[in-house]
Design goal:
By secondary structure, this protein is α+β, with helices and mostly antiparallel strands. The protein is built from 15 helices and 36 strands. Strands 22, 29, 30, 31, 32 and 33 form a six-stranded antiparallel beta sheet that branches. Strands 4-5-1-6 form a four-stranded mixed beta sheet. It is elongated, with a radius of gyration of 30 Å. The protein starts with a helix and ends with a helix.
């Protein structure tokens, strides 16, 4: 019953947003004396039974020359304006839409989006009065080498102020940084998990996805948000809201049991995907209600059928480019250091260092400026090599095997550490990335590899397999809070949130036109309803917040200069004003057909991706 009620709220909410948009057009028409033939809540399609045409409506009535009604399809609404279609005969009457001055028509066209902006403000204001679950500005992940990393910001830090202004949630922080002029520097107030407060200066950089500037942080943390179907963690007694702080497991790479502290989701995912044998038991340490609990979990066997692998790693180089400020490794390493050996064994992959450190410490031989020296690292310091060191980019121009996973397709084929793969199925191997892509697209078919080993060419047959990994069935979330305030403050927050989301929409649109944001990341009708349903189950306040978000999206997107949208009609009005005469009906129709085709194609595309995401999401 709860799910049915949530679904009803979603349908009513989205329908209300569409109706409010049409109401804006209707009120503007009335203000300028433009005649409206019909104004309906919902839709009233007509069906033909014999010679009789029956409109599917609940009721209707006429007043002042307008037919008001409620359609049987209770979703959205529509307004039928007199004299708006340039292809139909006109009477030239003063009450027709096209008889009005350009500025009046422009106001009518903008009115729908204006009403959506107002409704967004009201949605947000009411939502904050009821209470909304927001994401706290707590750092979950930090990209190595990013501005935040260089400033010493770490997972668990909470950013409380930006340039002296309070930061209430993560999205607010990300948006304000994204919209800064390039080259700007900001001062952030950071509170560590132990309560220590410090100020750091950060210079944001362009976001790789084209969403303005970024400092390289994300809010996803090792907090249990929800469970996948048939979740191994849920069966073991893990609960929503648990924070995973450590994992104990048998490491198939180093060949012994280890316990590792979990600072962020990235480390946990790496351990489960690479170090734990699928189906093996792990022990998760979780923080729940202030207590630390150890819970054994028998992992499931996850299979990524779309990707085939041989089960080996390529040889790489480890040259220090930069160290995180405040890192314990700064006393041992410096920029330019090249890691050569771990306990006397040549370092080809990170696993060589990790295996050597499994007894507690490892002696690393390194060189810099022609000089060789040795340092000793503890196992914990070896883990920091992944987080506190930015390594110089290494482009693998050949496939030189650095590690072979026991029991893998590569191991069964006889591939060994140090082998150089020069051909696959008679084709020259151009680079490691080319080879990896070839294997991935093989569909699991056997392939013949030509390998150089100790100066001899040998032929091996390998059959790639789907990627298998240890799966615990958890979707991780963020540090959330329930934000509720008094009605006056809620209205202020509503206005700020409307402006904040308007800026976010602008960033996405700018990214789409700059081709730095892919259309596959957009959501269509299916995605919007799916997300709305999930929000509805989090409470009325959170659903209203999402409806405010959808409203401001509709307000802005509908004003884009695309024919068939209000923004397209505005474009025709602007051209008419500049030329002194309207655009010909044939040109408008042609442009609208193109616009309609593009819009429908986009809707089909994003709907396909929505469905694909739903199917692929457990």
């Amino acid at each position: 019953m709860e799910s049915v009620i949530a679904a009803i709220w979603v349908i009513l909410g989205i329908s209300f947003i569409i109706f409010i948009h049409e109401l804006g057009h209707f009120l503007a028409c009335r203000a300028f004396g433009i005649r409206v033939r019909r104004f309906y809540l919902g839709f009233a399609p007509k069906i033909r039974i014999g010679k009789k045409v029956i409109p599917l409506k609940i009721f209707s009535f006429k007043r002042g020359g307008t037919e008001y009604g409620v359609g049987l399809v209770l979703f959205g609404g529509f307004v039928d304006v007199e004299g708006q279609d340039p292809t139909k005969p006109r009477k030239g009457a003063p009450w027709e839409f096209l008889s009005k001055k350009p500025w009046q028509r422009a106001v009518v066209l903008v009115a729908g989006s204006a009403m959506n902006a107002v409704s967004a403000f009201l949605f947000f204001a009411v939502a904050f009065s009821i209470g909304v679950r927001l994401t706290r500005p707590v750092v979950g992940l930090v990209d190595v080498g990013a501005p935040a990393w260089r400033a010493g910001i770490q997972p668990g830090d909470e950013i409380t102020e930006m340039n002296g202004q309070p930061v209430r949630e993560f999205l607010e922080l990300a948006t304000n940084i994204a919209l800064l002029p390039e080259g700007s520097e900001v001062e952030l107030t950071v509170r560590s998990p132990d309560g220590t407060v410090r100020k750091v200066r950060v210079k944001p950089v362009p976001d790789p996805l084209g969403r303005g500037l970024t400092i390289g942080v994300m809010p996803v943390a090792p907090i249990v948000e929800k469970f996948e179907a048939d979740s191994a963690a849920a069966k073991a007694g893990i609960k929503r809201g648990d924070i995973i702080t450590a994992i104990s497991f048998y490491d198939r790479i180093v060949g012994k049991r280890r316990q590792v502290a979990i600072k962020d989701v990235r480390r946990l995912r790496t351990i489960l995907s690479q170090h734990v044998e699928p189906g093996a038991e792990v022990v998760l340490t979780v923080r729940r209600d202030g207590k630390q609990l150890k819970i054994p979990v028998r992992t499931a066997v996850g299979v990524e059928k779309r990707v085939a692998r041989l089960g080996m790693l390529n040889t790489t180089e480890f040259i220090v480019e930069e160290l995180r400020p405040g890192s314990p490794l700064k006393k041992l390493l410096k920029a330019g250091d090249r890691l050569l050996k771990a306990d006397g064994v040549e370092i080809r992959t990170y696993y060589d260092i990790l295996k050597a450190a499994s007894d507690g410490t490892v002696t690393i031989t390194l060189s810099n400026d022609g000089r060789t020296r040795q340092i000793t690292l503890t196992e914990e310091q070896v883990l920091l090599l992944e987080e506190d060191v930015k390594w110089k980019d290494y482009v693998a121009r050949r496939v030189e095997v650095g590690y072979v996973l026991e029991g893998s397709a590569a191991a069964e084929a006889g591939i060994k550490r140090g082998d150089v793969i020069v051909e696959v199925d008679g084709r020259k191997v151009e680079s490691f990335s080319w080879f990896a892509d070839y294997v991935s697209r093989s569909g699991g078919k056997a392939m013949v590899l030509t390998v150089l080993r100790n100066g001899r060419r040998i032929s091996l047959t390998a059959k790639p397999r789907p990627v298998r990994y240890a799966k615990i069935g958890i979707a991780f979330g963020m540090h959330r809070m329930l934000y509720r305030t008094d009605p006056i403050s809620a209205m202020v927050m509503g206005a700020k949130r409307t402006w904040l989301w308007a800026k976010r929409v602008f960033l996405v649109i700018r990214g789409l036109f700059a081709r730095t944001v892919a259309a596959k990341h957009l959501s269509g009708p299916v995605g919007i309803i799916s997300i709305s349903y999930a929000f509805a189950k989090l409470g009325l306040g959170t659903l209203l917040y999402l409806l405010g978000l959808i409203s401001i999206n509709l307000a802005i997107v509908n004003l884009l200069p695309i024919p068939v949208l209000d923004g397209g009609h505005l474009m025709f009005v602007a051209i008419e004003k500049l030329r002194g005469k309207p655009v010909s009906p044939s040109t408008q129709v042609a442009a609208q057909l193109v616009g309609l085709f593009v819009l429908l194609a986009l809707i089909v595309f994003v709907t396909y991706n929505d469905v694909l995401r739903l199917v692929q999401t457990p």
